[in-house]
Amino acid sequence: VERLVFACPGCYMTFRREVPEVLGEPLPFETLHVIELVAEELQAGRAEMDTLGPGKVLTYHDPCTLGRQLGVYEAPRQILQAIPGARLEEMPRHGPDSFCCGAGAYVRYDFPELAESAGLERWSEAAATEANLLLTSCPACLTQFQQMRTQTRQPLEVMDMMTLIKRLIRVRETVSA
Phi/psi class of residue 143: alpha, beta or left (left: φ > 0; alpha: ψ in -120 to 50)? Predict the structure, then answer.
């Protein structure tokens, strides 16, 4: 194994930070989030994104673990900016200043009122961007935003980044010399 790729920010953090700490030594392989891998492939020219359609406005929610804890901010934005015809509209609080959706770290189970309040506040920020699509890279955030969409009945679509990538990515053919 040379690289271990994760879709879940929590699992990624476990292997990137906690497992080496428990073992007392670095892992013998690289760890990365699938979003970082996709951004790397796009930047290297080994893949490209198809169009999403004219006039599509996207907004991205930085998950707490992937963002503040692991520092992955640029990769999702590189991917979104690589989509022809789409425009990224940032929420006022984004990147390191992103506001929590309220669903992570079992908050929704231990403090449901807090989780709902935070979820609605973050949902309002996303809706205020007038984006067509709210994207995130965390299963807990995705579930939270789907619940907020149902509660508010707003037309803002919610999607995991990998679902969008699966629809739009095209791997370029490589010619071996």
Answer: alpha
Please state the separation of Cα 167 from the chain's center in Å: 15
**pLDDT tens figures, 108-155:** 888 999 999 999 999 999 999 999 999 999 999 999 999 999 999 999
Question: Confidence class of residue 104 from pLDDT cuts 50, 70 and 90?
Answer: confident
Nearby residues of 26 by Cβ (< 8 Å), 6 or more positions away: 20
The pLDDT score that the predictor gives to residue 176 is 60
Say if strands 47-49 and 169-171 run parallel, antiparallel, or are unpaired. Answer: antiparallel
Q: What is the 3-state secondary structure (H, E, C) of the chain?
A: CCEEEECCHHHHHHHHHHHHHHHCCCCCCEEEEHHHHHHHHHHCCCEEECCCCCCCEEEEECCCHHHHHCCCCHHHHHHHHCCCCCEECCCCCCHHHCCCCCCCCCHHHHCHHHHHHHHHHHHHHHHHCCCCEEEECCHHHHHHHHHHHHHHCCCCEEEEHHHHHHHHEEECCCCCC
The residues near 80 (Cβ < 8 Å, ≥ 6 apart) are 58, 60, 86, 88, 135
Token pair 């907004």 in the structure block, residue: 59
Asked if pLDDT for residue 102 goes beyond 80, the answer is yes
